[in-house]
Amino acid sequence: MRPLIAAIALGSFLQTNTAMAEGPVVVELFTSQGCSSCPPADAFLHGLAGRDDVIALALHVDYWDYIGWADIFANPAYTARQHAYARAANATTVYTPQMVINGQDHVIGSRPVQVMEQLQYHQQQELPVDVTITRRAGDVQIQAAAKRSGDYVVQLVRYTPEQTVAIKRGENAGKKISYSHIVYDWQVVGQWDGVRAFELDVEAPGDEPVVVIVQEARNGPIVGAAQLR
């Protein structure tokens, strides 16, 4: 797709009122400061990050660090998460920029039309888990209710809303790139069968955003999510 056409399509999507599911759509972008193909996807995620019906998360992987620039946001745990998604999908490789939408659909992150099609599809699906989160002092209270039982993993995610980095070496040397919704902490806080309501208070100091994701075990579909910006 030509850049101008892609920009027009993205603008149209961001202004469209789409029928919403009962929870936001989670978009995980696997990216790297050392990847020359990633800046367009990073910019696209920035646009998605402003939507209330999307939880946009940038997970920086470390397997591009060897080419001359160590990504300052990279975490091997995010590389492991991407590989786990690949195994769940019976894929033989991982790549950047990759977007995983609601834990199910894998799309090249620099192809906005394909990403938008998947977003619109997921926005029309009913999620089986309702998630509510509230702040209380330095804690976050998580409440979830499921329409069906299952083998669920409850995860708490923290991210930095935005940070600009001057990249001095590697494929993006000389560029100054602004990154959005940079994940710096991802932890499993509970296992849940969905039979009874889930309630848990988790320590989450500070005022940076908090996301809670309920996902089927072994990197299955995301079945419910909520965020506090």
From TrEMBL:
InterPro entries: DUF1223, Thioredoxin-like_sf
Record organism: Yoonia sediminilitoris
Signal peptide residue numbers: 1-21
Source domain of life: Bacteria
Name of the protein described by the UniProt record: Secreted protein
Keywords: Signal
